[in-house]
């Protein structure tokens, strides 16, 4: 396996040169190696600008020292000091060709595995089992799954946990409604709930209008929390029935969450008393209006008053803060996770900041841990407001995904060379891929506008464009009748060939940026850049033309095969399929 990206390799050489020349130590990252936008230049080193003041020297002097002591004849063809102290770098043709030729045998496309794997616990999706999943659950599910794939790919252990809402007062109401509908604890009835939202609304109406039903529902809550076997059996049946609904969504989305990844509020409920007891024993709690609170330092309201994290309410009940504290305590302590990630919308930023602060005060999170709220913006409609149905309600997620597949079916309907089954498979890959890519291709912290026309466009930064680029390459490889073998000589002599070659070698840097920044859009941006570079290469550099020399043909087939390899791998890391025909 080839290790790492060219930028870090160059950075290590520059760092070694500066250590020899000026007795200064920097990391390869601090060498500030960046791809160059200038014609005829591959990379640019900007370190002299940042080091000059620190060393009390002129930037060009620092740059000259780095170039003079640069031991990189095997890698670098030429260097040039430009402007106030930038170093322009051109790679050797033979090194570039050899790297690409060898890359063909590497299924990881040059991405190294980490030297010191960590254990990540990632919380994402988190629907409420009492209702069907809606469009508000889309971003957490998609972003969380992409991060899981990326982090696991680079070699870390990743444990997903789906923190579902499956406990509390509403479940007494729902269980009583189950009984009224003829359900039994022994499971003898067989009918399913056709509309989970409708079922919840019916129970709610009865609770509000029927005093007897409301009394029964409240008593049922007491039985549930007290561990009554018959009530727990009914509760479990409702949980199983609810789970069936969102398993359909995960199947449509191609998300790997399983039943064993469910960690509902019921799971953490037995831990809440101990969590608050420990906080109190450590002197972190205060009574405020009858509630047990922690006031983490640094959090105040507009009036400058301390903000409380209420860990036990005045009526003795527990809310989200207590459950989230118990969750962090469990994963950091009992499950030995080093990194806790919570893929939850931006509005919860302060809540998680306070939870993490309290966990640090309690000693549950130490300098060995990292806890991070992976926030994201909203999905907006064309009117710039949060996307809703025409009636003003939440858009059911399963209906949105089915519509995506239906719309994609129209895109592939004219592909008469595909049979009905193949067209259906392609339509699913295109439709679901379009929805996921539209979400992942923008900075997760920003809102984005949901547009069917934009996400299903055959051009621009869309999944369809990338999928089509890949199928076009696969068509070329089929026409060539044989795939290039590892070791095939590669000579990217034409500027378009070289631009494509450099884009291929930057894939490891894109993966590193996506993992380090928990930013899947870094992968999307790179894949679009790669597909665009291939398009320019394809237009300028004939591959299978009769007058293309055999050695040039072989070299260009390697570039094509590598592009397909990286596009397919990159899309898979986003949870998007790359169909062979489109």
Write up what this structure looks like:
With 582 residues, the protein is α/β, with parallel strands linked by helices. Helix content is 51%, strand content 9%. It contains 21 helices and 13 strands. The protein has a 4-stranded antiparallel sheet with strand order 1-2-4-3. It has a 4-stranded parallel sheet with strand order 6-5-10-11, with helices on both faces. β1 and β2 form a beta hairpin. α9 runs parallel beside α14, α14 (397-412) packs across α15 and α17 (463-480) runs antiparallel to α21 (550-573). The longest helix is centred in the middle third of the chain and has 25 residues, at 229-253. 42% of the residues are buried. The model has no long low-confidence stretch (mean pLDDT 92).
Briefly, what is this?
With 582 residues, the protein is α/β, with parallel strands linked by helices. It has 21 helices and 13 strands.
Q: What's the story with the biggest beta sheet?
A: 4 strands, antiparallel
**Terminal residue distance:** 31 Å
* Beta content: 5-15%
DSSP helix fraction: 40-55%
- Largest beta sheet: what is the strand line-up? 1-2-4-3
Main attributes?
582 residues, 13 strands, 51% helix, four-stranded antiparallel beta sheet, alpha/beta, four-stranded parallel beta sheet
List the helices and strands and how they pair.
Blueprint: H1 6-22, E1 33-35, E2 43-45, H2 47-55, H3 59-68, E3 76-82, E4 86-91, H4 93-103, E5 119-123, H5 138-153, E6 157-161, H6 170-180, H7 196-209, H8 211-225, H9 229-253, H10 265-268, H11 272-281, E7 285-288, E8 291-294, E9 309-312, H12 320-334, E10 339-343, H13 349-362, E11 370-374, E12 379-380, H14 397-412, H15 420-440, E13 448-449, H16 452-455, H17 463-480, H18 495-505, H19 507-516, H20 521-540, H21 550-573
Parallel strand pairs: 5-6, 5-10, 10-11, 12-13
Antiparallel strand pairs: 1-2, 2-4, 3-4, 7-8, 8-9
Helix pairs in contact: 1-3, 2-3, 6-7, 6-8, 6-9, 7-8, 9-14, 12-13, 14-15, 17-20, 17-21, 18-20, 18-21, 19-20, 20-21
